[in-house]
Amino acid sequence: MNWEQIPLGPLQTNCYILSNENKSCLIVDPGEEGKKLVNHLQQRKLKPQAIILTHAHFDHIGAVDHLREHYKLPVYIHEKEANWLMDPVLNGSQFFMLGNSIKAKPAEHVFVKEDKMTIGDFTFEVFETPGHSPGSVSFYFEKEGVVVAGDALFQGSIGRTDLPGGNHNQLISSIHNKLLVLPEETLVLPGHGPTTTVVEEMDSNPFLNGF
């Protein structure tokens, strides 16, 4: 599996394009700039199979409908945030976007529990990693040694927990019990900033080590 990190929008939210040798791909967290993403996919001759969302904050969902309608894609999100897609208050855009509220149509599928999933050519595990938001999830591709962590874990930092539904203790628990237990060499693809690894965060993340 190949992956590309594409920072989008004013918050430079990382969208990930996960693809294989057949040119099939999954789109993770298309936060904004839908036309840019479509052009990129067309240039690469990639064939999207689904949009999967780590959570439903506005900066992760802004281009969902543009891509969904262009490619006729299903969207997946955790059930605890399914209604956030349609609600600018819940997804935060009403407060942070200065009147430019973001809404998306309802998701075609919801994650209701941790599970192993296959979408098209891709098989991965869904981990519930709440704390940044109630329905935050991470996607673990065991064979490839990659976890897409959304806004749970960053290089040298963790997701903010002062937004509605955030819980600091819950986030720390999610990171320790779901992410840091993965093989140390696992590559962590975060929602913002550069990539990292499990071992790097175990050794040096000040939010996880009491520094």
From TrEMBL:
Cofactor(s) needed for function: Zn(2+)
Cross-referenced PANTHER family: HYDROXYACYLGLUTATHIONE HYDROLASE GLOC (PTHR46233)
Organism: Cytobacillus spartinae
Location of the Metallo-beta-lactamase domain: 12-192
One Pfam assignment: Lactamase_B
Protein name: MBL fold metallo-hydrolase
Keywords (A to Z) from UniProt: Hydrolase, Metal-binding, Zinc
